[in-house]
Amino acid sequence: MKTGMNLLLWTTHVTEQHFPLLEKLRLAGFDGVELPIFEGDEAHYQRIGRELDRLGLGRTAVTVVGPEASPISPEPSVRKAALERLRWAMAMARACGAELLCGPFHSPLGVFSGTGPTEDEKQRAVEVLRQAAEEAQRTGIRLAIEYLNRFECYFLTTAAEAKQLVERVNHPAFRMMYDTFHANIEEKNIAQTIASIRDILIHVHISENDRGTPGSGHVHWDDTFRTLRQIGYDGWLTIEAFGRALPALAAATKIWRDLFSSPEEVYTQGLAFVKSMWAKYAPAHA
Predict the structure, then answer these.
(1) Which domains does the chain have, with CATH numbers?
(2) CA gap 32, 56 in Å, rounded
(3) DSSP element (H, E) containing 161
(4) Residues 33, 4: contact at Cβ < 8 Å?
């Protein structure tokens, strides 16, 4: 298991000004960070990667797609733009040394049709994401698709739907991730849900029910950590929290009030919580 911190708590674009923060996260005890890939070029991400190498921090990456680059769009030009966007994001992830790119890059955030996903939309997603998976395999990247709760998207909102998408894409470079915040809203049985995706689960976001400090709310943490241990999960446990520091991101994530006293509280208390829960459910023979 490796512990990570999603940098969206501070920024949508990591630059040299965030290098002191990276140092703080290393000193706090994290194994790595999760880099948002929303803008920038290869040279920029190479610089970020060199600093992470210097600090001895691992890294994963996260990206999204907008309405102008949606894999489920009926417009071929928009789907082509989606594939190009994903190819760009994978190239930037590789430039910074990440081997995993996660996120809800199946459809645009906050865009709704007024109904559930259609079979045509599902097939379009499969076609675009299979091509993305081919590119991922060539570049040494693994894709981890993220389902969101039904208030943030309509296309992929449960683990079962994400599993079905992974099965339909049917490519070894395309798997799924699990986010405790979204699962807390959408899943009826956390242990059964995690067990059902054991063979395709490659990434986990640790996020409290209010997006605040992990361990301070009512997510089913015991079920979560117990089952992750039982299925032999050994990937990243990456803390994801959101605040009001970034107005556009706060609006997108519906953060209207302070959920914690400081970012330091989130990453210090959150990391201590993750480590204690992971240790609590260690196998008896370990």
Answers:
(1) 2-280 (3.20.20.150)
(2) 8
(3) helix 159-169
(4) yes
